[in-house]
Amino acid sequence: MSEPSRPERDRPWVMRTYAGHSSAAASNELYRRNLAKGQTGLSVAFDLPTQTGYDPDHPLARGEVGKVGVPISHIGDMRALFDQIPLDQMNTSMTINATAMWLLAMYQVVAQEQAEAAGADPQAAVRALAGTTQNDIIKEYLSRGTYVFAPGPSLRLITDMVAYTVSDIPKWNPTNICSYHLQEAGATPVQEIAYSLCTAIAVLDAVRDSGQVPPERFGEVVARISFFVNAGVRFVEEMCKMRAFVQLWDELTAERYGVSDAKQRRFRYGVQVNSLGLTEAQPENNVQRIVLEMLAVTLSKDARARAVQLPAWNEALGLPRPWDQQWSLRMQQVLAFESDLLEYEDLFTGSVVVEAKVAELVAGAKAEIARVQEMGGAVPAVESGYMKSALVASHSLRRQRIEAGEDVVVGVNRFQTTEPNPLTADLDAAIQTVDHDVEAKAAAAVREWRERRDADPRSRDRAAAALTALEADARSGANLMEASLEAARAGVTTGEWAQALREVFGEFRAPTGVSGSVGVSGGGSDELKAVREEVRRTGDELGERLRVLVAKPGLDGHSNGAEQVAVRARDAGFEVVYQGIRLTPDQIVAAAVAEDVHLVGISILSGSHMELVPEILAGLRAAGAGEVPVIVGGIIPDSDARALRAQGVAAVFTPKDFGLNDIMGQFVEIIRSARGLQTTAASSRG
User: Fold this and answer.
1) What is the DSSP string of 616-683?
2) Cα torsion at 592, 596, 599, 605 (round to 10°)?
3) 126 neighbors 163 (Cβ within 8 angstroms)
4) What is the CATH code of the structural domain delimited by 179-312+324-412?
5) Which of 31, 213, 265, 329 has an alpha carbon 20 to 30 Å from 453's alpha carbon atom?
6) Do 600 and 630 form a contact (C-beta atoms < 8 A)?
7) Start and end of every B12-binding domain (predicted)?
8) Residue 205: which of 248, 250, 162 has the closest Cα?
9) What gap in Å lies between CA 75 and CA 104, rounded to an integer?
10) Could you report the per-residue pLDDT of 262-317, keeping only the tens digit for each?
11) CA 2: distance to chain centroid?
């Protein structure tokens, strides 16, 4: 008797790994290796100077080049990044926001060059391009911090890209509304749904009102809006969240924008599962967390992700190695190809439990969307600080639940006993390291590029004319894509393109959300009350209130941890100085001296700690404030932590140090030690 044939299977989602580091050539080698392993799309990580519009030789790029992604300074780098990778056959996601137009322009030019070299039609190659530019600037003000311009000009850039791609690159997703980073910043599922849909409303309204797309083609605009979401370990709630997203997006696009084609109203999303919940303690537990989070966005056919990228088990320790990324890719492949998931219709249709949870999330999100729209929409809600304060408050409550043991994190606040971990026996070998000379090589290379370009009068004049035209179009209101394409062909650099627009649009600093955020309620726990008493007692002994400067140097915009430290320090009785992100070491030193602080807390998650922290220490000594203790927090390998302490850092905190009250207690002890007062506990971190 023959065995019955297997049911027909759905096509799997696009499988990606988020990757890029060091240089375009090194990243190209990694991409080609990953594609050979069965990865079906690319997800490009750009370094922070590229994301914020600086060349590698700019002072603000110090310590950041090639750390969290690949530096792309000009069209030559883009050619090298995609060498031997046919772009007209690829599906590429680019995590890029403020400079998204510039990276898309270079991507298009490289695709045209590839087609010309192959004797194919360049315009056909452009129309075949498939992929996504993240390009959600609202969430940059709320969580990631890689914005450059104010909301108005930023929406102008997005609007121009949407209009251009609908016409010229019809398979491209010109903006990718990101709820992922909202959850990383502490958003509840309701806030995640509401704030990302408010962002989508702001973008769609801006495109509609610009008049660049005829009303009869507006359904094409809606069809090219995609989303990038987060999936946490509460995978039932997360799956219901995705079904709520599907329902609300369908209603919104039909009712507000009159899109009648159900296919154009489809909620299209990719996912990176939760990195906020990955732990440094017992990091092997991250594997099962990642699998559960992947199930949240794949189990429900009616709300299944179109693309999935998974973090690696060791991302709370540092940069994953190729083998770690392969492990995460294999998780996707086992689910898609070994399991029978793709053989069935939706597993949850008709579930009373699921329908009730979805209805609850929909109702909550609608109420919050209405609240934001009453303020005038997402942009006013950003400019007023409302959304940022709400996220900081939600994140603070989450931290409090973990500290109180209400939310269990295995290996962190419960089940902490562990066997020796063979995966981390050699911590320095458990993560990828970037060559120390990457920055120097990139800075020298971009200088050589500009010098060689400008040595030829025709090339120099073409680049200068391209920048002049870019500024003129920015002032006139013309669509900026054509000027950006010419700038790419003319050899303009990333820093030059961004500076031309800075001349017209200026720069922007978003509200931090700290001053208006709700901290602990009811006076806090007994532990916090004890710390508050120690802060008061120490202040009395010194004859002044204790002041702490919390600072983020460099281009690292991931400010969630710094904000939580600042809020808890305020709740503990410290006077807190927090000026937000993107400060130079000189600015931090100047603030520490001007505010006469008792302690400086530096937060760095981008890997630039070994370059920037020593500069801050040297600056304090030069300013006569060398006795002010400096502590550092971030994703810092143990060997680097030892080196920082040897240079004079008083303590180093990493993600395993989740107890904020304990950290506040150590702040007091460090200040007392520095001021020659009797201490009651060791203040150093092992």
Assistant:
1) HHHHHHHTT-TTS-EEEEES--HHHHHHHHHTT-SEEE-TT---HHHHHHHHHHHHHHHTT---SS--
2) -20
3) no
4) 3.20.20.240
5) 31
6) yes
7) 545-674
8) 162
9) 11
10) 999 999 999 988 877 898 899 999 999 999 999 999 999 999 999 999 999 998 88
11) 52
| 3-class secondary structure, 604 | strand
Distance CA 655, CA 641 (A): 13
| 593 sits in which H/E element | helix 585-594
**DSSP secondary structure, 513-564, as one string:** SSTT----STT--HHHHHHHHHHHHHHHHHTS--EEEEE-BTT----HHHHH
C-beta of residue 256 within 8 angstroms of C-beta of residue 205:
no
Residue of 201, 182, 192 whose CA lies nearest to 238: 192
Rounded-to-integer distance, Cα 329 and Cα 38, Å: 8
Which pair of structure tokens corresponds to residue 543? 């004859």
**Per this entry, what is the length of the chain?**
686
Q: Token match 């749904």: residue?
A: 193
Q: Is 271 helix (H, G, I), strand (E, B) or coil?
A: strand
Q: Which two tokens stand for residue 249?
A: 């997006």
Q: Residue 417 has which token pair? A: 């006993």
DSSP symbols for 229-260:
EEE-S-HHHHHHHHHHHHHHHHHHHHHTT---
pLDDT in tens, 141-162: 888 888 999 999 999 999 999 9
Place of tokens 């060091």: 22
What is the phi/psi pair of residue 198, to 5°?
A: -65, -35
Catalytic residues: 18, 180-181, 552, 556, 558
- Cα–Cα distance between 505 and 148 in angstroms, integer? 9
φ/ψ of 276, rounded to 5, equals: -60, -35
Instruction: Tokens 């400079």: give the residue.
Output: 99
- The reported pTM is 0.88
With tokens 């489809």, the residue in question is: 266
Question: What single-letter amino acid sits at 151?
Answer: P
Helix (H, G, I), strand (E, B) or coil at 212: coil
Cβ partners under 8 Å of residue 83, min gap 6: 25, 28
Cα–Cα separations (whole angstroms), residue 482 to 93, 105, 151, 553:
22, 8, 22, 35
Distances (CA, A) of 363 to 71, 99, 162, 265: 43, 36, 30, 20
Helix (H, G, I), strand (E, B) or coil at 146: coil
Q: Is the dihedral of CA 43, 48, 51, 55 positive or negative?
A: negative
Q: Please answer whether residues 513 and 482 qualify as being in contact, where contact means their C-beta atoms are separated by less than 8 angstroms.
A: no
Q: What is the pLDDT of residues 157-204, one digit of tens each?
A: 999 999 999 999 999 999 999 998 898 888 999 999 999 999 999 999
What gap in Å lies between CA 463 and CA 496, rounded to an integer?
Answer: 10
524 has a pLDDT exceeding 80 = no
Superfamily of domain 526-682: Cobalamin-binding domain (3.40.50.280)
Which residue type, as a one-letter code, is found at position 651?
Answer: A
Place of tokens 């070491």: 585
Structure tokens at 393: 């408050």
Q: What does the domain layout of the chain look like in residue ranges?
A: 179-312+324-412, 526-682
CB 546 within 8 A of CB 538: yes
CA 388 – CA 384 distance, rounded (Å): 9
- 222 touches 205 (CB < 8 A): no
Instruction: Report which residue type is found at 647.
Output: Q
Strand (E) or helix (H) holding 489: helix 481-489
Of 345, 340, 354, which Cα lies nearest the Cα of 304? 345
